[in-house]
Each structure stands twice: as structure tokens, then as C-alpha cells.
Amino acid sequence: MDVTRLQPDIHYQFARSGGAGGQNVNKVATKAELRFNIRDSALLTDEERVILEEKLANKLTTDGELVLTHQTERTQLANKEKVTKKFYRLIEKAFEKPKPRRATKPSKASVEERITGKKRKGDIKENRKRVDY
């Protein structure tokens, strides 16, 4: 999927960033907030909408809107670029197919290492017992 085609549905808002910043921190709105409404997007197919709502469920508002922010850079433009890249990476990751898991057996060395570790732990516990003379 070409995520750059979603650009028309992205809305940006800017606010003053928190934290240290010297003289400009109270004057310049450098914090960038990206908003993308998955439910209202005309650029997504129904399948894509369902996939995004499932994969990004914990990042969506109750209205189905994805909100991302970035505020570490000193300029509004840099923060806007960073939050846009973050959005593109998030969308691409949501559409990645998971690599199928292949069942494997543990190697003989790992089994033996686990058993010796258990025996060592058992010996330590055995030595804690009271000894009657």
C-alpha cells in the first residue's frame, strides 16, 4: 500500500511544546499534532479500514481518529516531518503480514543446559535443609 496517498486526509494542529526551551518555549508553537480519521477517510477501502481499526485499536479515539504528536525538535517544520514519518511507519507496519512461525524442537545442548541448571538449583535448596547429627 502506498501510504503517501493518504496525505490529503491528514490534518495538522500546532501547540506550544512543554519542557525546556529557553526564550522561545512560551512564544512559538512547535509541537506538531497529526490527526487522521480512519472511519471518515474516503481514500481507504473497507478492507483497509477494518485492518487499521483492528491493528491500531489502542491508538484510536472513540471517533476512530488516530492522533500522533511530536515535540522534540526546535522547529514546527521539523516536528511536522517527524510526526508524518511516524504516521507512515505506523500505517506500513499495520499492513505488514506477520512472518509465519515454524515449530522447532530445542537443541540437545539447550535441553542439557536447562537440566543442569535445575539440578544446580535443587542442590542449593537441598543444602538449606537442617542437618541432624
Automatic annotation (TrEMBL):
Report the residue ranges that make up the Prokaryotic-type class I peptide chain release factors domain in this protein: 8-128
Q: Where are the compositionally biased (Basic and acidic residues) regions?
A: 123-133
InterPro entries in the record: Pep_chain_release_fac_I (IPR000352)
Q: Which UniProt keywords apply?
A: Hydrolase
Region annotation (Disordered) ranges: 97-133
A molecular function annotated in GO for this UniProt entry is:
ribosome binding
Which biological process annotations from GO are given for this protein? Answer: rescue of stalled ribosome
Which EC numbers does the record give? 3.1.1.29
PANTHER family assigned to the protein according to its UniProt record, in alphabetical order: PEPTIDYL-TRNA HYDROLASE ARFB
Q: What is this protein called?
A: Aminoacyl-tRNA hydrolase
Source organism per entry reads Spirosoma agri
